[in-house]
Amino acid sequence: MANQTSTVVAQDVSSPATSLIQVSAALCVIIILILGIAWFAKRFGFTPRHSNARGLKVTASVTVGQREKVVIVDVENARLVLGVTATQITHLHTLPPAIPDEEETHADGSPAPRKPQSFQDALKTILKRQGKQ
């Protein structure tokens, strides 16, 4: 008698649910990878941090409504108080350029870096100046 060997071939029985799980998992991995690369680029400075507007610097800002702000912008030889909304920018007042304090100097006479003024203090200064005029 001859020995007969039979081989059983296992067939992969895949249901639509397992295919859906595999596709969903791959999509989640790709999305997480994209978010991780974006975070890495932002964290380590691969994205621009400064705007292209040279000579402009927002010194102070306060939100006065849901989409409204009042900002103080330093320009070359003046400071502008601007009202900013979602649709327009309105010039509210022009201030003289900021004068560096004489007290804030190093021992060698060079000026020390200026501490940023809070918006509240800047607004109080503006209101005091307008009251005296």
Automatic annotation (TrEMBL):
A GO cellular component annotation in the UniProt record: bacterial-type flagellum basal body
Major subcellular site: membrane
TM segment ranges: 20-41
Keywords: Bacterial flagellum, Cell membrane, Cell projection, Cilium, Flagellum, Membrane, Transmembrane, Transmembrane helix
Keyword Transmembrane: yes
Domain of life of the source: Bacteria
Subcellular compartments: Cell membrane; Bacterial flagellum basal body
Keyword Protease among record annotations: no
Region Disordered, residue ranges: 97-119
GO BP terms: bacterial-type flagellum organization
Family of the protein in this entry: Belongs to the FliO/MopB family.
Protein name, UniProt field: Flagellar protein
Source organism per UniProt: Mangrovibacter phragmitis
UniProt lineage: Bacteria, Pseudomonadati, Pseudomonadota, Gammaproteobacteria, Enterobacterales
